Amino acid sequence: VTFVVTQLAMGVTVLIARYIGEKREKEIGAVLGGAAVVFTILAGCLFVLLVLFARPISVLMQAPQEALALTASYVRICGCGILFIVAYNVLSAVFRGLGDSRSPLLFVLVACLVNVAGDLVLVAGLHLDAAGAALATVLAQAVSVGCALAILRRKKLPFTFRKSDVRLNEQCRRFLAIGLPLALQEFLTQLSFLALCAFVNRLGLAASRMRGSLPSVKTIVLGFAFSCATSGANISAIVITSENAFQNLLPVSVGHKDAFLFYSSTYGKKFKTKLAFCATIFASHIIVIFLPK
Q1: Tell me, what DSSP letter sits at residue 122?
Q2: Element (H or E) spanning 134, and its range?
Q3: Which tens digits make up the pLDDT trace of 115-129?
Q4: What pLDDT, in 10s, does the model give residues 275-293?
Q5: pTM of full prediction above 0.85
Q6: In b/e form, how buried is each residue of 155-183, taking b as 16+ CB within 10 angstroms?
């Protein structure tokens, strides 16, 4: 869910960067208002799905019978906090669209610290097991959303945001036209991982615990490449819409903006390929890090 929401929010990021490049900052307020409505509706739908159908989803995932109740509890609690998860990804997309990638890094740092502290207290201390881990995750996302809103209120913005902007408008169609194909691509990718997860879960609790370490490895391998792709999307939106911005962004001329776009995408693919190769060679050593002794 998180990865799909992140890709859908990419449409907001690109559209904001595009309007900045076109000197149409006045339209960004409508983008944010439309995004608030669309993603609130999405969060409501996910809330109903994850809370009411937590157990059927766990059964569909072929969770081992010994861990079925814990899995359903984890899914249900995360569903209760889905609004914070969606809000965090949307706010991060807004900051990236404005050219600020440091603030989302700060939000992640705060979320990680709160998550670790929550796990120590709720899981290790109070022995709440999966429910404690889920509560720690939701609490971490809630704190990061609070930090994001506080920074956004103090940040000097190049646009004005009004209450009248919070409605379905033409901007919704525009950022969805960009974000939906990316979200669909990510959905199909994650669907394949879920199918693999369901297959492995049928092998028993030990195999299920082994598979649980893979998302951590996948995140490490693909995290940097995803960050490069996000930055490339922002810069590309500005470059395509503003020739002056292109000259300011690149101190060394590459002759043509198409060459820049090709270079950025090629570099990201090469780096991701190298990381994937290293992960394949050292797979056993990496997985041991995430497994209990």
Answers
A1: I
A2: helix 129-154
A3: 999 999 999 889 888
A4: 555 655 665 555 555 555 5
A5: no
A6: eeeebebeeebbeebebbebbbebbeebb
